[in-house]
Amino acid sequence: MKQLFFVEDDLSLINGLTFAMKKQGYEVDVARTSLEAERMWDAEKYDLVILDVSLPDGSGFELCRKIRQTSKVPIMFLTAADEETDIIMGLDIGADDYITKPFKLAVFLSRVNALLRRSDHFSQPEAELTSKGITVQLLQGMVYKDGKAIELTSSEYKLLCLFMKNPDVVLSPEQILSRLWDCNENYIDNKTLTVYIRRLRMKIEDNPGEPDKIVTMRGMGYKWNSALGK
After folding, report:
1. Which domain does 73 fall in, by range?
2. I need a surface site. Which of 98, 118, 152, 202 has the fewest CB within 10 A?
3. How would residue 213 be classed by pLDDT, with cut points 50, 70 and 90?
């Protein structure tokens, strides 16, 4: 049974969403403050973390940063902070999804289910991927650049695996979004995908301003260009 960690201070929202998630068959632990969340957090226990941004004693952004220091667990922000800068910050620091209030319960549950399905898919052991100085050890979930380990968030890791498993294939934004987010709806837009691409390039490219691994095919999408560079 999947174990979810819900960090939220609104009691009515806690009661409603906890009831809905338990009806879906999930176990849910709830923390109402940053301090309580830090005390309860267990990297080996939870399959998904759902964070509010504004908490009585701190920020969900800071909690996200701390979790990302030790875990690639999927993280979803569920918050009233709907400014574009907040959304970009949440994704930049390692969140996999960002839902703004108000929202529809069916949409929320769909995205929870999608995050968990993707997490299961990418955690399945396969072979090692190697291309252009980048090595992904799928069994261990480790990524190396020129032999040195690099830290990727869950979304960055999944995006890198998608590209490396489809070398020299042009993937449209729609194809990438549908494969990674596993949704039929346009929940994640191209602007959000651009943030993910930029963030991943900063970690794997020798010159992120002139990428030679994940290249942009103008008007078409992106591809992992195995013919260039290393």
Report:
1. 3-122
2. 202
3. very high
Overall pTM > 0.85: no
pLDDT the model gives residue 189: 63
- Final residue before a domain boundary, out of 122, 138, 159: 122
d(CA 111, CA 99) in angstroms, rounded, equals: 9
Which of 76, 102, 122 terminates a domain? The answer is: 122
Q: Comparing C-alpha atoms, which of 118, 72, 121 is closest to residue 94? A: 72
Token pair 């869950």 in the structure block, residue: 154
What pLDDT score was predicted for residue 114?
87
The three state secondary structure string of the chain is CCEEEEECCCHHHHHHHHHHHHHCCCEEEEECCHHHHHHHCCCCCCCEEEECCEECCEEHHHHHHHHHCCCCCCEEEEECCCCHHHHHHHHHCCCCEEEECCCCHHHHHHHHHHHHHHHHHHHCCCCEEEECCEEEECCCCEEEECCEEECCCHHHHHHHHHHHCCECCCECHHHHHHHHHCCCCCCCCHHHHHHHHHHHHHHHCCCCCCCCCEEEECCCEEEECCCCCC
**Cross-strand pairs, 224:** 167, 214
Provide the percentage of residues in the chain whose pLDDT is more than 70. Answer: 91
Residue 191 in this model has a pLDDT that exceeds 70: yes
In a domain, 134, yes or no: yes
Does residue 27 sit in the same domain as residue 59? yes
Cα(7)–Cα(62) distance, integer angstroms: 12
Contact 215, 222 (CB under 8 A): yes
